[in-house]
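Archive record
______________

***
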Amino acid sequence: MPTLLVLLMVSSVFTADPSAATEEFGIDEKAVSYSGFQVWSITVRSNGEHKLLRQIIEQYDVEVWKEQKTDKAAITELLVAPQVQRVLKVKLTEADISYGIKINDLHTVIDNGNAKHNMSSLNTKTGHSMDWTKYHRLADIYGYLNYLASTYPSRVELINIGTSYEKRPLYVVRIFNRSSSVVKPAVWIDGGIHAREWISPALATYIIRQLVEVPANEALLCNVDWFIMPVMNPDGYEYSHAFNRLWRKTRSVTSWTSCRGVDPNRNFGYKWGGLGTSTNPCSDVYKGTRAFSEPETFATSNFIKGKASSIKLYLTLHSYGQAALIPWGYNVVYPSDYSDMLELAKSAVSKFTKYRYRVGNAAAIYYPAAGGSDDWAKSIGIKYSYTFELSDTGAYGFLLPASNILPVCQDFFPALDVFAAKVATMKV
């Protein structure tokens, strides 16, 4: 997060009980307020305009939410603090750069985006607290995973692959048909790499439920195993619920004590430290001191490497933008089998009926970003590796209302039929 934002933010009201959150985390910290903050969409149509915009962003320390390219323009979405809104309007007008306000007051969107709750109560009928009508805290998610493991031992194995920086368990769910002793090709799915992208763990847990608890989906387990990690960054995820809705990174201590955390999706060990990363610990794209410096990325990569001979497809769930992104992401470079990857992605996306997704090279559609998990997975031999940027296209951005959870999940799930059919044909 830019330094200016850290200095500007004061107490907030987006948790149901900030004092409870402080007690839970054992620290004296006030929740961040985004009252008056806006999200602007800036369109530039030339290299000169793009250079001027970058200068303005750097001069006023404005946080970039998303950058994407079209055939004729580049669109940048910015989080703009109240204190710099007037001067930015003047600067953009002087530069003849067009802009629009997509979110007028971030606090209002945050406040209305999720049911106000800290911890859901146990549903005695279902045996767990999970549903997909609101965004759940980590305790609900982990409680659900444990419930599944104990209720469906012939189908679910809950694997603790390590601990986070703040000593939370890192769980992977293996979903399989225990009656078969044959080693099957597998699909890996992860969510929650970036803390604020709440729709990502929601979709990952929805997929788990569909595979485990819905008999109509049993065919997906016949020839394929599934490894699903719904929350790769549990510390950041909890922090985004308790203190800062827009927190992105891990929560490790850095060389700057006032700026914590590393971007886990810049911390994987392929082309680490390249374009789209930062050496500044206060940056949202801080790469860390070395590849796999974070216990979360280290544990995840070790587990995947141990299963690399069987994992044939890697899906990492993010938001937002509605795009299926194909490596390489470190620069606009295409792998030799790009046409195979593009064909499969287009086939999967064709199953979506509610949301329209772009498909293409990650760096070409968005921007270069080195050290990403999808590039790393591709680099160790997982042929099909994709990042899915989920809904929406900017009306809410990272703050997708909870009312959208089920529509997004239900729209996405049929694509797994396409992926599973392809993986089932691959040899282990």
